[in-house]
Amino acid sequence: MQTWEPERPGGQGLDANQEESGNRAIHALLTDPDCGDRVDLVVTFREDAEGGAYEVWSRRGLVRFRRVLRDDGSFDFPVIEVMGENPIGNQDPHALDSLDAERTAALASGFAADEADRRFIAPAYQSYPFACERIAQLFDSPHAPDLAISPTDWAQGPYAGNHGALHVRQARAPLWFAGPRVRPGRHRLAVRAVDLAPTILAACDLPRIDGADHSGRTASERGVEPDVYLRRQDGRVLEEVLDRGAAPARRAYLFLMDGLHMTELQARLEAEPERYPNLTSLRERAAQVEGGSVVNFPSITWPSHTAIGTGAWCGHHDVVNPSYYLREKRETISPQGQQILTEGFSSQAVESLYEAFKRVRGDDGFTAAIYAPFGRGADHAALENRNTSHRPTLKALTEEYATDCNPRWREEGRKSAIDESVLDNRGIAQVVELFSRADRPAPDFVYHELTLTDGVGHEYGPHSDGLADALEEGDKRVGRVLELLEKTGLLEETFLVLTADHGMAPQDAEATHPANHFETLGFAGVVCEPMIWLRDLAVEVERQGDGRTGRVLVSDNDALPSGERPPVEEAEVVVEAHSEGEAPRVVARGSSGPGGVFGFATPSDVDSADLALSIRAEGFNPRRVRLDGRSLALDLRELLYGRNDG
Known about the structure:
There is one protein chain. The protein contains 18 helices and 32 strands. The chain is of the alpha+beta class and 646 residues long. An 8-stranded mixed sheet has the order 12-15-11-22-14-21-19-20, with helices on both faces. Strands 7-4-3-2-8-25-24 form a 7-stranded antiparallel sheet, with helices on both faces. The chain folds into 3 domains: 2-169 and 509-534, no CATH class; 175-313 and 340-506, Alkaline Phosphatase, subunit A; 537-620, Sandwich (Immunoglobulin-like), CATH 2.60.40. The protein is elongated and about 90 Å long. The protein starts with a strand and ends in a 5-residue tail after the last helix. Strand 17 (324-326) and strand 18 (331-333) form a beta hairpin.
C-alpha cells in the first residue's frame, strides 16, 4: 500500500503555520454557544511526517484516517486514531431510506415525527455514506478550503429546506435507469453520483479510453489496457443494472429534478400514483437503485451537477463549492452567483459527457444542456449563450406550454418559484424544438435540469404540499419529453436516467449556518458556506549561536502563482521570556520591516524554548511560537475530550 496524499497541493487543509488558527477555529466552531450546537462535523486535512491525514472533529469524537492506494489499484481509508466516538463510523448507504425510517429517527432524536417541517434528525441517527472518499477527494483540489463544516440536519436556515451536509439525508438523490440495456427492478446497491457518467457511456457502447481512473493515473501509467470512458473517471460502471448482452442505446437523456428528496418522491408516488402518472409509469419499467445516489461533498448544486456531468468528484473538476476562494489570486469567485458562462471554471483535466459523445460521434453528434449548471462542450447550452433553437418557435412553444405552470406560485407571490417554473417551461420548449428539427439529427445526449423542486423545497420545505405541487408540475414535463421521444420513434433507443443533485432536509428558520459565525468569533478568513479559508501568517524564527539575538521572518502563508510567499511588513512582534516561577517579561517589541524581517536582542541565559513570540498583522490570524520554532497551539484533544492520546 502507498499513502496517497492530496493530488495537487496548493495550501488546502492545515499546514504547520495553521496549527494554531486551525485548532482555535475547530474548538470555537464546536463549543461556542452561538454556533456549537449547529455544527455536526469540522473536516480538514493536516500535514504530518507520514504524508498527512484527514481529520473529522465533532463534539462526540474525533477520527483521523489516511487514504492509501492498494496493490490492486483500489483506495482504502485506514483509521489511525479515534477519540470518543467515531463521528462518521456509520456509513450505511441504506440508512433513512424511507419516510417511516426518517420519522423513527426524528422521534428518537427528540423531534416531531409527524410534523414535516420539524422532522429533524440528530447526528447519532444519521449515516455518512462513502464519507472517507468524499472527504478525501475534496482536498485533492488546490481550491479546497482549510476547514469544511457539515452542519447538523436543521441548521441552515432561514430557509424551510436546505442541503450541503455530508450526512445521508442531504446527500442522497433518487436514481432510476430505464431503456436499452437496463435490467428493470429494484437493486440494492451503494451508488455514488460519479458512477452515473460511465454507466451512461457504457449503456451507449462508447469505447473505453486511456484515461485516468480515481487515482489520477491513466491506463498506460497503470500498465493496463484502456479501462475508463472519460478523461478522468472516479466512478464505475453500474454493471448490476445493465444487460451487456442487449443492444446498446443510441442516445441518452438525463432528467435531473433538482433537490428532490428520495424518500419524498417514493412516498408521493406510493400514496398518489395517479397524480404523477408519468413518473409512476417510468418507475415501473426502470431499474430503481434502493439506496439512491450519494452525491458530492458538499452536497450543493454547482459541485454536484459538475460531478454528475463529468464522472469526477469536485476535488478533481475543481468547482469545489458554489463560491470559493483562490488563494494565489486573493480572489473569491462564484459560479453559482454568476449563473451564466460558468463552464470555464471546471478543470480541463476532466471530460464532460457532452465532450465524450462529441469525441466519439464527431460532427454528426449533437448534445444539449437544458439549463443544466454544467454544460461544457454541449452544442446547445442556453446558460453558456449557445442557444441553437429557432427563437420564434421557442416563443410559441413556451406560450403553448404555459398552462403547465401551477398558478399557486403567482397567487402566493413566490418570485423564485415563479421564475423557476417559467425557466422549466422554457426548457421544455427547447427540448421539443431540438427533437423536432428537420435540418439536423436529434440530440445524442441531453442533460435536462428541472429546477422547480429545489426552489420550492427551499421555500416551502422538502416534505410540504408545495413540494407535492412542484413534483406534479415536474411530472407533466417529464411526460412531455417521454411523449416526444415516443412520437419521434426514439424512446426505445434512449437510455433514460432520473436523479437529483442532492437531497434536502427541513430547517429551523432561526438556526442560521454556523459558518456565518466564523468572523464574529474573531478569526480572519474567507467564508463561503460551508467552507472556510484561513488567512494566516507564515513565521520563521532563528537564533544566533551565541544566544544574544534572534530574528523572525513574517510572510503571507498563501503563496502567489510563482510559489513565493509575499513578506508582511509592519507586523507587530512581541517577545516574552517565560521562566519557571516568574511572571512573563517582555524582552523585545517591534514591527517587521522590509522583507518581513524583525531582529531583536535576546537574553543569552534564557533557553529558546522559554522565549515566546506573539505576531499580529492586520487581516491575518495572530501567531504564537517559541523561538525554537514550536507552535503554542491549543491542545484540541484535551480541550474537547479531556485527554490527549494523540
